[in-house]
Amino acid sequence: MSPEPQPVRDLLIGVDVGTYSSKGVLVTLDGQIVRQHVIPHGISMPRHGHVEQDADGVWWADTAAIIRELLREPGAADRVAGVACSAIGPTLLPLDTQGRPLRPGILYGVDTRAHAQIGALNDEIGADVILAHSGMALTSQAIGPKIRWLREQEPGVWAQAATLISAGSYLTFRLTGQHVMDHHTGAHFMPLYDPRTRAWTDEFAVPVLGSAPLTCLPRLAWSDELAGHVTAQAAAQTGLREGTPVAVGTVDALAEGLSVGVSRPGDLMIMYGSSTFFILVQEAPTPDPRVWSVGGAFAGQVNLAAGMGTTGSLTRWFADEFAREHDTGAAYEELFTQAAALNPGADGLIMLPYFSGERTPINDPHARGVVAGLTLSHRREHLFRAALEAVGYGIRHNIEAFRDLGADVRRVVAVGGGTRGGTWLQIVSDISGEAQEVPAVTVGASFGDAFLAGLAAGVLDRADLDRWVQPGAHVTPDPALAPAYDRLYGLYRDLYTQTRATVHALGAPT
């Protein structure tokens, strides 16, 4: 009697939950996209500095709905070799003993609620000690201060908390029943993570966790490792086959970097999303308080990371508030067309893009947006051009910080919604002096997740990334604009230092 033929597992699924939308892709083993699906969503800002999302109503509901849509063809689930998820991060989500969320997830560095806890931890442990231990300073991106905020400000929630995880980890838990977190995300749970041993440490646990044990944190693993398999419950909710392998996954930015082939030392990804995120692959860490030293996707890999707080969300706010006569797509088309026709410098305007505070390299949660140089001759498009250039100055500031600390930037790859049309990319290249590559296919983090799924399932190896990512556009700076933008960049840097005390006072409680 001949054995039954084995089913063909020739598809992979990647799902990414972002700040304003979730996206999934169904991909073949050679990187060809079979199907995509996107679900938009919002964020909650219950008070200034607090930015949250619902773990079940947004993160898991989106993920389950996207997977069901990707698998709508009969028999598709049986062909899936693996699945992986990424999400906004690092975030903080407390779960009870049954794995149920106790409150909305507290988002990454755009949530600045824990500034008092940052000060307290720096005082109690020592800012220099934390930098030496973690390889980076405490900022709004760090989860340790947010854990302490939760313990101090919401004692009722804290008393019920059994597990503390991040958004991507929650999706993996809902799929597999396993609590596991990737090293890149874990590094941001500072000072509870030791980058030398790549393990949780209790050395500074008491100031953060109080009497809670380190066992409230999930198991650590690399992004391409196997987290577990789809449970019967998850299979019923998503349409996946029970037992499908699930990768550990990671944050959206790291998955986005993989999606465009950023995997070798010297590769720098600039992700143009709601915020702008930077990931530089390194051969050795270069700790510095201005930026973040974290683990990479693969075992032993090191990344230097950075992030601006308000970039794509700034342009979205601008379109929503000042181009209300159009829907968002038409508003963007008109605004970008008008901005592209203006001279560099927006006819004498400079903007600071710190509309939600700022992360790297100034790490100032109290920073605010500023517009300087307004006259009665300026129009809406001048302000929009100034917003695009403000992001360009911020990107230059971060790249300069990388190079100041000795990091080697050899190749810049751009990805994200802000790359569409080319206007913004050209402005950034002209301001920074950096050429940028844009691969032919820039699906986003979900494409990188699908690749991680293939690695975890054992149907791909890392060398396959080269055939998944195809070359595309190449944006080069205009050297004739360098003198003008060098001058304007200097004024941009001065504007922050000269207005810092004023905007801090304006934002202070009255």
UniProtKB/TrEMBL annotation:
GO molecular function, a single term: kinase activity
Keyword Transferase listed: yes
InterPro entries linked to this entry: ATPase_NBD, Carb_kinase_FGGY, Carb_kinase_FGGY_CS, FGGY_C, FGGY_Carb_Kinase, FGGY_N
Keywords: Kinase, Plasmid, Transferase
Domain Carbohydrate kinase FGGY N-terminal intervals: 12-254
Domain annotation Carbohydrate kinase FGGY C-terminal: ranges: 268-457
Pfam families: FGGY_C, FGGY_N
UniProt family annotation: Belongs to the FGGY kinase family.
Entry protein name: FGGY-family carbohydrate kinase
Organism: Deinococcus aquaticus
Taxonomy of the source species: Bacteria, Thermotogati, Deinococcota, Deinococci, Deinococcales
